[in-house]
Amino acid sequence: MIRTGIGYDVHPFSEGRRLVLGGVEIPAERGLAGHSDADVVLHAIADALLGAAGLGDIGLHFPPSEPRWRDADSRDLLRRVVQLLGEQWVIANVDATVIAEWPRIGPHREAMRAAIAATLRIEPGRVNVKATTNEALGFIGRGEGIAALAIATLQQR
Ligand SMILES: Nc1ccn([C@@H]2O[C@H](COP(=O)(O)O)[C@@H](O)[C@H]2O)c(=O)n1
Ligand SMILES: C[C@@]1(CO)OP(=O)(O)OP(=O)(O)OC[C@H]1O
């Protein structure tokens, strides 16, 4: 059996925060606000995996109301999602799109791919990271935040 899941997340920019995308810290004067490290890319991937497995969503497993997830490293959250998947599923592939006017994702694409693959314990060839601007439209176009979409496919062992 094969199952797919979709994930979406968005976080607003905030001064004095670290900018962490796809498990990679990008040197920047501002980052994204959130209860955790606000890694919007890993959150979208977590939701895609949970969706494919029929296990709800990230907020269900790591509620923002719980102090233990404050400033959490989203790679740790994603590792926990992989544990939740159990032995039943193999991650066939993960594909993510970052929607941001800034920063340029291209220079960080391979590092993100490697970080995501290592966190999911799969080969980098099963991971793809893409990016697009929002063509200056809406809140993303005004540079107020970053969104990410992800799709994941699980194959039964
Ligand atoms: N934050 C971003 C946005 C885009 N890119 C790369 O630029 C290409 C063109 O973007 P458009 O929004 O004009 O379609 C896109 O395909 C990406 O390769 C990027 O690296 N970082
Ligand atoms: C990751 C969690 C952890 O509490 O908090 P946030 O960093 O605010 O991120 P969000 O995408 O809103 O997902 C909910 C939470 O699970």
UniProtKB/TrEMBL annotation:
Site (Transition state stabilizer): 35, 133
GO BP of this protein: isopentenyl diphosphate biosynthetic process, methylerythritol 4-phosphate pathway; terpenoid biosynthetic process
This protein's UniProt keywords: Isoprene biosynthesis, Lyase, Metal-binding
Domain 2-C-methyl-D-erythritol 2,4-cyclodiphosphate synthase, residue spans: 2-154
An annotated Gene Ontology molecular function: metal ion binding
Enzyme class name: lyase
Binding residues for 4-CDP-2-C-methyl-D-erythritol 2-phosphate: 9-11, 35-36, 57-59, 132-135, 139, 142
Pfam family, one: YgbB
Metabolic or biological pathway: Isoprenoid biosynthesis; isopentenyl diphosphate biosynthesis via DXP pathway; isopentenyl diphosphate from 1-deoxy-D-xylulose 5-phosphate: step 4/6
Highest taxon above the source species: Bacteria
Cofactor note text: Binds 1 divalent metal cation per subunit.
Family statement: Belongs to the IspF family.
PANTHER family: 2-C-METHYL-D-ERYTHRITOL 2,4-CYCLODIPHOSPHATE SYNTHASE, CHLOROPLASTIC
Protein function: Involved in the biosynthesis of isopentenyl diphosphate (IPP) and dimethylallyl diphosphate (DMAPP), two major building blocks of isoprenoid compounds. Catalyzes the conversion of 4-diphosphocytidyl-2-C-methyl-D-erythritol 2-phosphate (CDP-ME2P) to 2-C-methyl-D-erythritol 2,4-cyclodiphosphate (ME-CPP) with a corresponding release of cytidine 5-monophosphate (CMP).
HAMAP family tied to this protein: IspF
Stated name of the protein: 2-C-methyl-D-erythritol 2,4-cyclodiphosphate synthase
